[in-house]
Write a structure and sequence with these properties.
This protein is mainly beta. The chain is 1% helix and 52% strand. The protein has 2 domains: 160 residues, no CATH class; 119 residues, no CATH class. β16 and β17 form a beta hairpin. The strands form 2 sheets. Strands 1, 2, 3, 4, 5, 6, 7, 8, 9, 10, 11 and 12 form a 12-stranded mixed sheet that branches. Strands 13, 14, 15, 16, 17, 18, 19, 20, 21 and 22 form a 10-stranded antiparallel sheet that branches. It contains 1 helix and 22 strands.
Length: 305
């Protein structure tokens, strides 16, 4: 994963949503002028310890949109920032491969990211969401790996992160307006209805083409994930468990206990696909090495960002 760039992951603050990784170009510096009407209002406090010092933000930004909370603490006027994105925000602890965190140093085209080719790090604990005053508070930490793997740069530990009464704009999913999109994701686990509380969609580019990731999350952040090659047209595509060759895939991720069930057989059907929406059905069997689960369901989501 060379020279990764984030173009969409912090779109709620920087005009796009999702995360794009590229193996040929560095990340363009964040242009603060693009933030618009200053979402988040620059209120509250944001601190984190790294490199033997305490980073204290001079500006805070936060936004909720499309089922995603993005929080950023900026220092100075040269683009230095620490940021993270949390899907389906609620009071509780978030970790795993959906959590995107990064540090943007001053004057650099690259970042320290909370993931590399082998692992993902970090957690965010949201301790309070005040929907009336639209503020969010909590703690966070992560290991940051340098996004240009052609350079031998040691990772950085970000510890004791805290964000307190950060003002946000947008609508919480499931309350105060519900899911802000008309996305649909249904699931049945071993032929029994599986309750989906929220839907999150992202588009990623890992250098081999774009992939649409459709996430159906339940109330405690367990999730059913479908991945679809964005170049596919309507039709039926098989899941064989070969992640290097399959053009579609699926998995089931549980929070407590933490476990990942990878699909080994099944199929994803694309019934319709336009420039901004994709819809169809799916079925798959997945295993965590010990147990097997079977899922079936439907999806109809907007993947344009």
């Amino acid at each position: 994963m060379k020279k990764m760039k984030i173009v969409q992951a912090f779109a709620l603050l920087f005009l796009a949503m999702g995360f794009i990784a590229c193996d040929t170009e560095p990340v363009d510096p964040v242009l603060l002028d693009n933030i618009g009407n200053n979402p988040g209002g620059s209120t509250g406090s944001f601190t984190v310890n790294f490199n033997g010092e305490t980073y204290t933000a001079t500006t805070t930004l936060a936004v909720i949109n499309n089922g995603m909370l993005v929080v950023s603490g900026l220092r100075g006027s040269q683009g230095e920032s620490v940021s993270f994105a949390v899907p389906n925000p609620a009071v509780g602890t978030f970790s795993g491969d959906d959590l995107i965190m990064y540090y943007q140093p001053t004057g650099s085209s690259y970042q320290y990211l909370n993931f590399n080719m082998e692992e993902t790090s970090g957690s965010v604990n949201i301790t309070n969401i005040d929907a009336l005053n639209q503020t969010v508070s909590g703690t966070f930490s992560f290991t940051g790996w340098w996004s240009n793997d052609e350079e031998d740069v040691e990772p950085i530990e970000f510890t004791a992160g805290a964000f307190t009464n950060i003002s946000y704009t947008g609508t919480l999913p499931g309350g105060g307006g519900g899911n802000p999109t008309d996305d649909v994701f249904t699931a049945a686990l071993d032929a029994m209805d599986y309750p989906i509380a929220n839907v999150a969609v992202a588009v990623a580019d890992g250098g081999l083409g774009e992939t649409i990731s459709i996430n159906g999350l339940d109330a405690v952040q367990n999730k059913v994930v479908l991945t679809i090659d964005a170049s596919l047209t309507p039709g039926t595509y098989q899941i064989t468990g070969n992640m290097l060759e399959d053009v579609v895939g699926a998995r089931y991720v549980t929070v407590s206990p933490e476990s990942v069930y990878m699909a080994t057989t099944g199929s994803i059907v694309i019934n319709s696909k336009t420039e901004d929406r994709i819809a169809g059905t799916y079925s798959f069997s997945a295993t965590n090495g010990t147990d097997v689960v079977n899922f079936t369901g439907t999806y109809d989501v907007d993947y344009s960002f």
